[in-house]
Design brief:
By secondary structure, this protein is α/β, with parallel strands linked by helices. It has 15 helices and five strands. The structure holds zinc ion (ZN). Zinc ion (ZN) is lined by residues 50, 52, 71-72, 75, 77-78.
Length: 322
């Protein structure tokens, strides 16, 4: 629960909803991936079903996540939810690249049955943005009128990643990027990262534990200095012929294939976010924002059918336009 514990605002909102018994039909957890959203869904389910809320101020080792409404962490219900085998806690994950219609249909069939034992049944879709259109449409009606005692939790980085019809049926709950110090200590402790690597990955992760772990494990963090220098040449006007430099860089990034190009873009995203938080003037900030939106658009191109070279060229043209 360490990451969820950092989410003071999300915890306050959820505990208010719990206290008023107004969790509603559907919640949408928004924010960087792996910033405590799945822990939050579990904690919510535990708190709603625990017969002894607030009985252990340490939440049976989970921490005081919801004040007086915190789950005990020790009763059979809490333990089964924690262990991932509570019949009323349903999680739908993607198969391959997508959460497919079949998976959503299976979920709805389960939900058509009476809840097993809990007061609240929770259906969680951790990567809701990966639902294809058919899956999202299959879910729509149930979001509006869920079966008795049932609520949905959808998790996505941004509302723009989902169909507007889904978003409008959910109450948003915002999760903040985790502080670099929290990510860094996670990497040192859980991944046995050396301190230099942990510091760089934490800085570039955008406050997301899985992204930080990926940077570390792929070794991509080692290239951060290279990209930092190139970005600084391009954005601070230190390159003699920025367009030529950009095209060379584009070729270099595209040559190693789609996956590696996507990885480089993720790193550039992290670097741009760091620049944004350090940016002094309005012009510098707007250049960073334009760069960040160019990253997202190139990432979408890569996920689609655009060749790495075209996607990267497009990215650098947008970056330099400003
Ligand atoms: Zn309990």
């Amino acid at each position: 629960m360490e990451a969820f514990f950092q989410q003071t605002r999300a915890r306050a909102l959820l505990s208010a909803l719990l206290g008023q018994g107004r969790i509603g039909n559907a919640l949408l957890f928004l924010g960087p991936a792996g910033a405590g959203q799945e822990e939050g869904a579990k904690a919510l389910m535990m708190a709603a079903n625990c017969p002894f809320p607030g009985s252990a101020r340490d939440g049976g080792g989970l921490g005081d996540v919801f004040g007086d409404l915190s789950p005990c962490g020790r009763c059979p219900s809490c333990r089964r939810i924690l262990g991932g085998n509570h019949p009323d806690y349903l999680v739908v994950r993607r198969e391959g690249a997508f959460v497919k219609k079949g998976a959503v249909k299976d979920l709805l069939a389960m939900l058509a049955l009476k809840p097993g034992e809990g007061r609240l049944r929770l259906a969680v879709i951790p990567e809701a943005a990966r639902m294809n259109k058919e899956a999202a449409n299959a879910l729509l009606k149930s979001l509006e009128e869920p079966p008795a005692q049932t609520a949905f939790v959808l998790v996505a980085e941004g509302a723009a990643d989902l169909l507007p019809t889904l978003v409008s049926r959910c109450r948003p709950v915002r999760f903040a990027p985790l502080a670099p110090g929290v990510v860094e200590s996670f990497l040192t402790r859980e991944k046995k990262a050396a301190s230099e690597a942990a510091g760089i990955c934490a800085k570039l992760s955008g406050g997301s534990l899985p992204r930080a772990a990926e940077l570390l494990e792929s070794g991509a963090w080692r290239r951060s200095r290279f990209f930092e220098e190139r970005l600084s040449e391009l954005l601070d006007g230190r390159a003699g012929d920025p367009l030529l430099r950009a095209l060379l860089l584009s070729e270099l990034m595209a040559r190693s294939g789609k996956e590696s190009a996507a990885e480089s873009l993720d790193m550039i995203r992290g670097l741009l976010r760091c620049r944004l938080s350090d940016a002094g003037g309005k012009a510098a900030r707007s250049a960073c924002c334009a760069g960040l939106s160019a990253v997202e658009s190139a990432r979408r191109d890569l996920a689609g059918n655009v060749s790495p070279r075209l996607a990267m060229d497009g990215f650098f043209f947008s970056l330099l336009k400003n």
